[in-house]
């Protein structure tokens, strides 16, 4: 393949990655809601260690494990921020959409 074809492949892969990250974020959001009702902390270091182990175990290459873990550190930062922002907006009395409340 030439460069233009490889770039088309990257564009398509990026669309798939965005869809998967969004799905992961929606799952983290649901966990955040369950944490709110059970008063559990947003930051769960033991769970994060398991996530890194899982990622390392399924790393097919060519990225070194450490680089993959760096990417995941950033992803998890964003997931925690999503949970915290939602908690903050609820504490500030922001109204949650009905369909979200009823999930
Ligand atoms: C999603 C969760 O909340 C946080 C985010 C995590 C993640 O994005 O994988 C893991 C642990 C928590 O620090 C969770 O507790 O599972």
UniProtKB/TrEMBL annotation:
Residues 1-87 form the Chorismate mutase domain. Pfam families: CM_2 (PF01817). The keyword Isomerase applies. Its EC number is 5.4.99.5. PROSITE patterns: CHORISMATE_MUT_2. Keywords: Coiled coil, Isomerase. GO terms for molecular function: chorismate mutase activity. GO terms for biological process: chorismate metabolic process; salicylic acid biosynthetic process. Residues 3-30 form a coiled coil. The keyword Coiled coil applies. This is chorismate mutase. The lineage of its organism: Bacteria, Pseudomonadati, Acidobacteriota, Terriglobia, Terriglobales.
């Amino acid at each position: 393949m030439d460069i233009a074809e490889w770039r088309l492949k990257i564009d398509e892969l990026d669309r798939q990655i965005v869809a998967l990250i969004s799905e992961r974020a929606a799952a983290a959001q649901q966990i955040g809601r369950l944490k709110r009702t059970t008063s559990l902390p947003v930051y769960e270091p033991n769970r994060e260690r398991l996530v890194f182990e899982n990622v390392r175990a399924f790393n097919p290459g060519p990225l070194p494990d450490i680089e993959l873990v760096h990417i995941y550190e950033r992803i998890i930062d964003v997931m925690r921020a999503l949970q915290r922002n939602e908690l903050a907006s609820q504490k500030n009395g922001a109204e949650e959409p009905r369909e979200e409340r009823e999930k």
